[in-house]
Automatic annotation (TrEMBL):
The lineage of its organism: Bacteria, Bacillati, Actinomycetota, Actinomycetes, Kitasatosporales. SUPFAM superfamilies: FMN-binding split barrel. Residues 151-289 form the Hemerythrin-like domain. Belongs to the F420H(2)-dependent quinone reductase family. Gene3D superfamilies: Electron Transport, Fmn-binding Protein, Chain A, nmb1532 protein domain like. This is Nitroreductase/quinone reductase family protein. It comes from the Bacteria. NCBIfam families: hi_GC_TIGR00026. InterPro entries: F420H2_quin_Rdtase, Hemerythrin-like, Split_barrel_FMN-bd.
Length: 304
C-alpha cells in the first residue's frame, strides 16, 4: 500500500470511528501501531482482521509476499502494541499463534476471508496469525488522580504480566514432566506466547525504572533529603533487577527460547527480587505521592 494512500486510510478510519470507504468499504479494518524494531518509532498500519471471541486475528500476509511485513518484524522485537478498533483504542501484547493453534486460527480466518488461502498458496513461508486480545470488562481501571495512583497502576500491570509469564512457564514444565513420566515425546519448547509476554514485561520494566532513576527519584529527593538512604536502596535494587532483566532479554533474543531451564531460573529470580522491590517502594514513597496531582497541571502561560 503506497504511503500516501495508507495515510489517507488511517485518517479516514480515525475521522469516522473505524469506517472506511473506497476499496475497503464494508471491510473489517483495525489500525495496529507497532514500535520500530530498531528505532522504536511508532508505525501505524491498517489491517484486515477476523474476530474470534475475545480476540482479534490478523495475518502477516503482505498479499503473499516472500518476506514477513515490517509490522510483524516490529512486534517480534517489541510486543507491546496499540490497537484502534472502531471507536475503541487499547494496548495489548501481540502474540503469534504456533503449531496446531496457528493452523486452527488460520482456518478460522480463511472461512471468513478466503483470500488469505490464496496468499498462502503464493508464498513458501507460513503466514503468521497474530492474536490481539481484547480487554475484558473487568479491565476498567480505577481513576488515576494522583502520582501515587499512577505508580500503583504501573506496578499492578508489572505484577500481572510477571505472574502471567510465571504461571505459563510453570504450566509448561508441568506438561514436560507429564510427557516424560508417560514415556511420550517431549513437550514442545517454550513458545512465542511466553516469549512475547516476557519481552513486553522486560521492556516496560526498563522504561519504568529508567524514568524513576532519571526523573522521579531526583525530584523527590529535592523535597525529602532525609530519605536519601531510601532512594539509594531503590537505585541499588534497580541495578540488581536490571542484571536479571539483561539475562532474560538475552534468552528472549531468538523466537524460540533455547535454554528453558535457565529461563525458568532467571524468571524465578526476577519474581522474587521485583516483588520485594515493589513492596518496599510502595511502603516508602506512596504516601509522599498521594498529594501530587496526575496528570501534571500544564504550566501557566506567561505574558509576553
Amino acid at each position: 500500500m503506497p504511503p500516501a494512500f495508507q495515510q489517507s486510510v488511517i485518517d479516514e478510519f480515525r475521522a469516522n470511528a473505524g469506517k472506511v470507504g473506497g476499496p475497503f468499504e464494508g471491510s473489517d479494518l483495525l489500525l495496529l501501531t507497532t514500535a520500530g524494531a530498531r528505532s522504536g518509532t511508532p508505525h501505524t498500519t491498517p489491517l484486515g482482521y477476523v474476530r474470534d471471541g475475545r480476540r482479534l486475528l490478523v495475518v502477516a500476509s503482505d498479499l503473499g509476499a516472500p518476506r514477513h511485513p515490517d509490522w510483524y518484524r516490529n512486534l517480534l522485537a517489541r510486543p507491546s502494541v496499540r490497537v484502534e478498533w472502531g471507536a475503541e483504542e487499547f494496548e495489548t501484547v501481540a502474540v503469534p499463534a504456533e503449531g496446531a493453534l496457528r493452523d486452527e486460527l488460520f482456518a478460522r480466518v480463511v472461512a471468513e476471508a478466503p483470500g488469505y488461502a490464496e496468499y498462502q498458496e503464493a508464498t513458501d513461508r507460513v503466514l503468521p496469525v497474530v492474536v490481539l486480545e481484547l480487554p475484558g470488562p473487568e479491565a476498567t481501571a480505577p481513576a488515576v488522580t494522583s502520582l501515587a495512583d499512577k505508580l500503583v497502576e504501573v506496578h499492578t500491570w508489572l505484577r500481572a504480566q510477571l505472574l502471567h509469564v510465571h504461571t505459563e512457564t510453570e504450566a509448561h514444565f508441568a506438561s514436560r514432566a507429564a510427557h516424560r513420566d508417560a514415556g511420550e515425546p517431549p513437550a514442545p519448547p517454550l513458545g512465542l506466547q511466553i516469549r512475547q509476554r516476557c519481552l513486553a514485561f522486560c521492556q516496560a520494566l526498563d522504561f519504568h525504572h529508567t524514568a524513576e532513576d532519571g526523573h522521579m527519584f531526583p525530584a523527590m529527593e529535592g523535597y525529602h533529603p532525609h530519605l536519601r538512604e531510601v532512594f539509594d536502596r531503590l537505585r541499588e535494587e534497580h541495578r540488581g533487577i536490571a542484571s536479571v532483566q539483561t539475562a532474560l532479554s538475552a534468552l528472549l533474543a531468538d523466537v524460540a527460547i533455547a535454554e528453558p531451564d535457565r529461563f525458568r531460573a532467571e524468571l524465578t529470580r526476577m519474581t522474587e527480587e521485583l516483588t520485594a522491590h515493589l513492596d518496599y517502594e510502595e511502603e516508602q514513597i506512596l504516601p509522599l505521592l498521594a498529594e501530587v496531582p496526575w496528570p501534571p497541571a500544564a504550566p501557566a502561560a506567561t505574558a509576553s
